[in-house]
Specification:
By secondary structure, the chain is α/β, with parallel strands linked by helices. The protein folds into 2 domains: about 120 residues, D-Maltodextrin-Binding Protein, domain 2 (3-Layer(aba) Sandwich); about 100 residues, Periplasmic binding protein-like II (D-Maltodextrin-Binding Protein, domain 2). It has a 6-stranded mixed sheet with strand order 2-1-3-12-4-13, with helices on both faces. A 5-stranded mixed sheet has the order 9-6-10-5-11. Strands 7-8 form a two-stranded antiparallel sheet. Helix 3 packs across helix 9 and helix 3 packs antiparallel against helix 10. The longest helix has 30 residues. It is elongated, with a radius of gyration of 25 Å.
Length: about 280
């Protein structure tokens, strides 16, 4: 009898362990991307997309209803840094992410050994030239201090905008990676002051002008209409630094991801961007 009871207890314990394991596994499956078989049968699809809070998550939120009408449930996962959303995508925890431009993505892949690719452009955040002391670039005095971002990615972009507005001339081969050393002509002898991009709006009082990224301009209450000049939609910088939907290499043909990009490039999202950000964010489509 004791032997029989022992066998019963052992069996019950084994069933309990299996039951707990199955419950945990089912919870994991609920969060996972749907199987290829489910997609083929036309069942509802859930896409988990990582994004920065502003403006990316807000733009994704504006696309939710249209995606739902197409059988796609969009789950937005917000990140406050630029590393974790790519790592989460690479590991399979996300289906896509939307927060970065191609130069950053290329650099990340090179440094981390990841294989993440751009599915396509959605928007760009134009850089602008702002000032607390002048209302026209023609008023900029001789020898004025001109603030630009200190990082290589945005510093070259800022110099191109200064060149576009006649303040400097760069060496012909400088391109998007231009630095102060590429300045060939400086008719007003302006002093280029490099600083952390986030500090530029806070330092306008100490500068003649500053070239400020769109997101930092927005965060500090600067509006596009306040800018003395702004990047054109067809400029080299705007096309180079357009923000993309990124996916794992090999997922570029997944139908639900293609639909996601189509909706993000559609009229509903374009109207949302144009009506919400006042030109500080501009659709690429």
């Amino acid at each position: 009898m004791k032997k029989y009871l022992a066998l019963l207890l052992t069996g019950a314990l084994a069933l309990g362990i299996v039951g707990c394991g199955q419950s945990k596994e089912e919870g994991t499956d609920a969060d996972a991307a749907p199987t290829k078989e489910a997609e083929a049968e036309g069942e509802a699809v859930t896409l988990k997309v990582g994004a920065s809070p502003t403006p990316h998550a807000e733009i994704l939120e504006a696309a939710k209803e249209e995606l739902a009408a197409k059988g796609i449930t969009l789950q937005i996962v917000e990140f406050t840094d630029y590393v974790q959303p790519n790592l989460a995508l690479d590991s399979g925890d996300l289906d896509a992410n939307y927060f970065q431009h191609t130069p950053y993505l290329d650099s990340f892949n090179e440094e981390q050994g990841t294989k993440i690719v751009s599915l396509g452009f959605v928007h760009y955040e134009p850089m602008g030239i702002y000032s607390a002391s002048i209302t026209d670039l023609a008023e900029l005095p001789e020898g004025a201090k001109v603030g630009i971002p200190a990082d290589g990615t945005n510093g070259g972009r800022a110099l191109l905008l200064l060149e576009e507005n006649g303040l400097i001339t760069l060496n012909s081969d400088a391109g998007i990676s231009a630095t102060k050393l590429d300045i060939a002509e400086n008719p007003k002898n302006i002093e280029i002051v490099e600083m952390e991009a986030a500090q530029l709006p806070l330092s306008l009082g100490d500068l003649g002008i500053a070239v400020i990224n769109g997101n930092y301009a927005m965060q500090n209450g600067l509006k596009v209409e306040d800018a003395l000049a702004i990047e054109a939609a067809d400029s080299l910088a705007a096309t180079t630094y357009a923000n993309v939907v990124a996916v794992r290499e090999g997922d570029e043909t997944r139908p639900e991801l293609i639909t996601l990009l189509e909706v993000l490039n559609g009229q509903t999202v374009a109207d949302f961007i144009n009506n919400t950000y006042g030109g500080a964010v501009a659709p690429t489509a």
